[in-house]
Write the structure tokens for this entry.
Amino acid sequence: MKTIFLISLLLNIFLFSGCGTNSDSVAPSQQTSTNILFPSGVCDQIIDKHYYEVCYSYGKKGALFVGYTLQKDLVDAQNIEERLSFYEELEIPSAYRSESDDYTGSGYDRGHMASDASFDYNETALYSVYSMANIVPQNPDVNRYSWIDTEYLERDKAVEYGSVDVLIAVVYGDNPQRIGANDIAVPSGFYKKLSNEKVDYEACYFYENIPYDVELDTLEEHQVDCSYFPFY
């Protein structure tokens, strides 16, 4: 049943791709700082933050995918402790943006997809991940505890293998809950794929956007077969 649920959720990504834009606005990622290519035909806008890229949905007013490559020499390079204020992403047309205030009183955290701890090696990189284009509503248990396990893992694998490619998919139900004055869609779950082709490494994890017993929850419980997810 879990496999069927995961497939159903993730296939929704490909069903809402248009969101009112034409084909000229849809293109695979070509950023040189990452090896990630987004699936074709699903992004209303690709936002290049230099350190990572966001495949953005105007209809959901949030990310569908976030991709980046972590390099070994940047992990723990500086570990800036200061955490910054969230800011609107001005590259997105104003009608489709989210704001930090949309989350106030919603019961959801402002969840980083490209995490602050993976980009705290310089001030510019850290600032980049506080763009609201990189933020989606996360259950507090997921954001503060469970999902963090995948962030530790991506940094560990970057150190172990020299680099690791990270692809995060944000999945939504057919009629997602909305929060805030801008009607931000609340995801159903989150998928993360870690890979390094040179060493034939690939691992995938899925988290529903629900409360967890964080004392019992383990990373291994969320590992899934990457072949279930037809992203390419």
About this structure: The radius of gyration is 16 Å. The first strand starts at residue 45 and ends at 48.
